[in-house]
From TrEMBL:
This is Malonate decarboxylase gamma subunit. The keyword Lyase applies. InterPro entries: ClpP/crotonase-like_dom_sf (IPR029045). Keywords: Lyase. GO terms for molecular function: lyase activity. Coiled coil: none annotated. It holds the Pfam family MdcE. Its EC number is 4.1.1.87.
Length: 233
């Protein structure tokens, strides 16, 4: 789904979300309350400039509209793979974006992520995965690493990883697998405005991804191992 159709289905034809290059932003009215929208489009590569632009919107919302909810619309191919961005410190720019989102949550802003098209790699980690809850459209594409790259990193044969991906969501791309692992809370179907309304009202403010992954069978050990660490003397 393109961002214009999504914004219209969520907020009506006069939604107020605008595009500046790969950046989406706007102040909208939803159920009579203001909401800040931040996002990316066209499978945006997240470089230094785009990460800092998104962070600026988050900081301005905290300064000018304390407590206002934020909706992150996610469509990214991951971090910008360019020497210029590496030299400028893309890791620090993306960390800055993530810390701004985390600070907004700590200051009482409701922060929701919605993967409406594609979410890959670090561009997803520093946005939707830091929100109070990250949801997705059923047709979205989500993955952190392709199997060939995973094979190079883990030194395991790609054929073995492909076999493991058939039964273990940790090794497999796809929005359904991220729901099973708890990284995506739920899929938005039907009336998208109703789905946003439900998310604003009921999405958890604490991190429940490990518990959700255990309950759904996608990550069976993460929650129990984390609890053992917490309980250790």
């Amino acid at each position: 789904m393109d961002w214009q159709t999504l914004a219209t289905r969520l907020f009506g034809a006069a939604h107020g979300v605008t595009r500046d290059g790969h950046l989406l932003r706007g102040s909208v009215e939803f159920d009579g309350r203001p909401l800040t929208v931040i996002g990316t489009t066209d499978h945006a590569p997240i470089g230094v400039q785009l990460a800092l632009a998104q962070a600026r919107v988050v900081l301005d919302t905290m300064a000018q509209h304390p407590g206002r909810a934020l909706l992150l619309l996610i469509d990214t191919q991951g971090q910008q793979l360019r020497r210029r961005d590496e030299l400028l410190g893309i890791n620090r720019a993306m960390a800055h974006l993530g810390m701004c989102i985390d600070l907004a949550r700590r200051r009482g802003h409701r922060v929701l992520g919605l993967v409406y098209d594609q979410a890959l790699s670090g561009g997803f980690i520093t946005s939707g995965l830091i929100a109070d809850a990250c949801d997705a459209l059923p047709e979205a594409e989500i993955r952190v690493m392709r199997l060939p790259a995973m094979a190079r990193v883990t030194k395991l044969p790609e054929a073995l990883l492909a076999q493991l991906s058939e039964s273990n969501p940790v090794f497999a791309p796809g929005v359904g697998n991220y729901v099973a692992m708890g990284g995506v809370r739920q899929l938005w179907r039907g009336d998208l405005a109703d789905a946003l309304r439900e998310a604003l009202a009921h999405a958890p403010t604490e991190d429940r991804r490990a518990q959700d992954g255990a309950a759904r069978g996608g990550r069976r050990m993460a929650a129990s191992v984390a609890q053992q660490v917490l309980d250790a003397p």
